[in-house]
Amino acid sequence: MSGQAIQDGTTANGPVVIDRPQAGKPHAGKVLAAIQPHCDDIPLFAAGAVIRLIDEGYTGHLIRVSNDDMAGPGTTGNTVLQNERDNQAVARALGCRSVFDLNYSNHQMDQESRLEMRARLIFLFRLLKVDTVVCYDPWGHYEENPDHSVTAQVVEAACWMAGGSKDYPEHFAAGLQPHGVSEKYYFARGPQLVNRVMDISSVIDRKVAVNRLNVTQGPAGQSGAALRKSLAERGLQIPLLGDDDESAANNYIKYYVLERDRQVGARHGLEFAEPYHYIGPPADTQQDFVRRHAVPLK
Known about the structure:
The chain is α/β, with parallel strands linked by helices.
């Protein structure tokens, strides 16, 4: 697939790599930062990739940029508390070792200092020695939520600047070292360039479970059970939802909320898959150049 617009708005940019599960721990020793503006972003768009990469050896950390104060029922204070609890539960289910909440106000990030946000992320990338990030695509189109686009842009800049030897020298005085991020898995809600498709068929039920933990603002299962009950009252049913509320909760998320994953998978002969704009390490390094051209001195 090359240069072809597909149903969910993504566009393939050249050949699409199918990233299939790998046996063992091929990523042992590497560090992953899953970065989300809100506590439902990674669960909805990238939980499959995060689960798989951690299973394959990554040490994972979850960074939430907002405090989610505008997303949930009840008072603002209750919303913040409940989302914080949900986010902690999501991190555990993903297999992340730690959680960092930057606590910016929800829907207000376009008024925050991007310089400060970037600096905080650079510190975390150096502290944790992050090799790979999973985050919103800074080049995704038609993104209506300012938190998503701001987060994506500061993450992209921080990935590069964290490797510099002169930015924030106080970090080095504290014992940190330059550490640039070499791999990015970028996702988007709307159109984006896609060059990697992550096969998440083997972990789709775990992705469903992660989304059920977003009780405050995510699907959390109650929508499927409520829909099943509402249909029954009208003498209708959706067999796909199953015969009880627990099945309805899981299947509603699996076959409705995560329908895009099923569609992306179907286009590539997979059951479920997540699309990404993947940016990896340079294909041609100085060592490669030396290896190809160096000869003994005459």
